[in-house]
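Worked problem 6 (solution included).
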Amino acid sequence: MKIHPIRLKPNDDLKQSLKNFAHQKNIQAGFILSGIGSLKQAQIRFANQQISTKLTEEFEIVAINGTIATTGIHLHIAIADGQGKTIGGHLDQGCIIYTTAEIIICESKNFIFDRTFDAQTGYQELEIRYRDE
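Solution. The predicted structure is:
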């Protein structure tokens, strides 16, 4: 396992920055260990919805979870507003950093994560392969 800490700065796009990082470091099978920070705009696709919802206020990032690889990322995010109300869903492009985001990515050298179409779900889904295959 290899650990990759990353700090994003104001106005960075959270999802695009993580995609870029995966390509820059050639991460083949990674996952988020920890993720906190703040957003000044959120773009989240809620459960069973076809399109994302844009939220334009400041939020605390209370959690980010999911997989990350050069072949794609699948992340969920939980955010809290100024009153502590928490919502979450599928992270989409358009989540813009307010002050910072501190993300810790763990990379496994034993696996390769691919994204392949799954006819049953209709989505690109995680395909896990052992690296020595």
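Discussion: The chain has a mean pLDDT of 96.
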